[in-house]
């Protein structure tokens, strides 16, 4: 607990106490805020000084006007000059920032103080706008950081003790009061409450959580006093994984961006070489005066700079990533977002991806004449004592359809119960014997005589049958199935509307796979598919369709996710699936993939618009300069104006 101390720490001395990196993050965010606004403020101050210097120049105060112009150069160009020099020293290459500095100095050198100052002003203004764009696209990280509390109330020998969340360890018991955010992933060991998980899962309504239910960092305890046991270290929580994914996406560059960065250095050298030749060759070969020669060289230095081209990609990419993160689509890098536009086929795991991953009761048949109330209560009393997944499905069904409204009769009690692994449960309720289990456990002949046609139909649909028998024979029949997610049908339809080939890869039996195919209208299914089989199918798809995506949630899906061009994991899936994937759907909503494809195509379209526009402007200005139709002020406005326009065009991706 060394970090928990009075008086703050060196990195966050403004705070009374330091509780770890989140505390220090507050000061870091404030520094970024000041830096962004300082850059814009200095640009505006530079503009104001330029106006004053221009007025003094007109009223013939040359010395004072030059002094003001120099101060405008320094104030407006500080950030860009610093950025250009640091980048040149670290990468040992020339860049756009240095090109602009040379152009401004060259303009002043030949007496065009106003033009050089305006160049610095607009360049610094566009730089401030680009910085604003970058920081706006990163706000999801800051907003996520705000969701995690800095401290937690740990129970030690019954006493409450405040500690930093980074110092929580597995096994700690944490007290969470109504209205507080949950500081760690864990399970409830005491209490019941409604938990708001909207920030992580997108679920609009709070969920009722009780003892042994899982809770997650950053979610809100709405109304009850609960105690949780910490089950994961702070760096392993779902919350931390989200932050890492967004941060990773911010730092990773697309192929287009990498190409532009490689292109920038050689291009700047070529421009400087051409400008160097223009400083004297036109005077001798074209008959220009020295004044005209130097002037046109400076105009060339301005208009040939690839500022707009450099700004064509990164603001648009970060804006698109930000848009996706806001909607629960986390991209691990711009490269994956860019590749989505070329998607031709998409493969799905079944359990936990197309389906909810938990069996649910879909059909119920009861023996004619049997009291439904007594039947449901009896089954509930038996199955709630079992931990089998099918028993849990039956219990949830009875609770949802009957017990919540009517409760159970106190007269009913389980006198004895015996669970037979792989078969079912035997029990006695008020001296009446009951059996709940598979067909053979009840007796094949008895099962055949109870809704035989309906039972066959249910089995053909891939459903599992749970029979219930009493002392008079078969009393009822539950059909249980892992049901589709609410968005699955709509999502598959949207994929097909986009021209994507769909395929389901599942380890389930053929009958179950065929039933899901019928319900979802997926193009193809492959049943009985083990992890290595899924990888083989993915390789076949890649040979045929070139760019394919795999969507899964389990450990067994991880190899296929890695083998696909684009791996997509469900946010509620396993750590292995999330870590292997390229995209994570935090809301477990498959329709978000189609939305991501549309976002990718829109981003690529905007980037192409920016590139074509910026190249066209540069070419037009260069040609016009050689023809003598572009003045230095017009060249500055055309060059910097195009840079601002491509940045604003990229910002459109933040909307919609």
Automatic annotation (TrEMBL):
Main subcellular localisation: membrane
Subcellular location: Cell membrane
Membrane topology (UniProt): Multi-pass membrane protein
Any one of the GO CC terms: plasma membrane
Residue ranges annotated for the P-type ATPase A domain, each copy included: 147-247
Stretches that traverse the bilayer: 36-55, 93-112, 267-286, 298-321, 611-630
GO function terms (MF aspect): ATP binding; ATP hydrolysis activity; ATPase-coupled monoatomic cation transmembrane transporter activity; metal ion binding
Keyword tags: ATP-binding, Cell membrane, Ion transport, Magnesium, Membrane, Metal-binding, Nucleotide-binding, Phosphoprotein, Translocase, Transmembrane, Transmembrane helix, Transport
UniProt keyword Cell membrane present: yes
Keyword Ligase: no
Top-level taxonomic group: Bacteria
Family, per entry: Belongs to the cation transport ATPase (P-type) (TC 3.A.3) family. Type IB subfamily.
Family annotation (NCBIfam families): ATPase-IB_hvy, ATPase_P-type
Name of the protein described by the UniProt record: ATPase
Gene source species: Alkalihalophilus marmarensis DSM 21297
